[in-house]
Each structure stands twice: as structure tokens, then as C-alpha cells.
Design goal:
mainly alpha; flat; 4 helices
């Protein structure tokens, strides 16, 4: 949601509305388009507030994001996440 909020603040017109609708969909746990997942992953990888995370923590966050956006049962290889 942080990534979308940052992009929404910079957007105008129809793009701003599209992002607002995407935020609403996330809040209701509806599936979102692939661009949202890529935007979020890029945000998580480059956000300097997150630079202190270990590689293991980054993998956990990425897997948690995947589970949130595309629920599934495969959580192998990430400590702390179980089906």
C-alpha cells in the first residue's frame, strides 16, 4: 500500500483514480493486476527505510506479499511461514 500511495500522490486524472481503485481492492482482499505486484516488489527492494532487513527477512517479506496477493499453499523455503 505504501508503494501505491506514493504513486497515487504523483499521479493525476485517470491514473490517480485507477490507483485509488486498486487501493480499495487491496483493502477488500480482492486480486490485483500484475503491475501492482511488480510495483510493490520494486518498492520493497529500493525503499531505503527497508535497507536494514537481512536477506532472510527480505525473502520472508516477499513471500508474505505473494501469499497476501496470491494465496496458495506453497510456503517451502521461508522460515516462519506455514500452510
Amino acid at each position: 500500500m505504501d508503494a501505491l500511495h506514493e504513486q497515487r500522490r504523483a499521479a493525476e486524472g485517470d491514473e490517480r483514480l485507477r490507483i485509488r481503485k486498486t487501493l480499495d481492492a487491496l483493502e477488500k482482499h480482492h486480486q490485483v493486476d500484475a503491475w501492482v505486484i511488480e510495483l510493490t516488489r520494486a518498492h520493497m527492494a529500493t525503499n531505503r527505510r527497508d535497507a536494514h532487513y537481512t536477506e532472510g527477512a527480505k525473502r520472508w517479506r516477499d513471500r508474505a506479499l505473494q501469499e497476501y496477493l496470491e494465496p496458495g499453499e506453497d510456503v517451502t523455503g521461508v522460515d516462519g511461514l506455514t500452510a
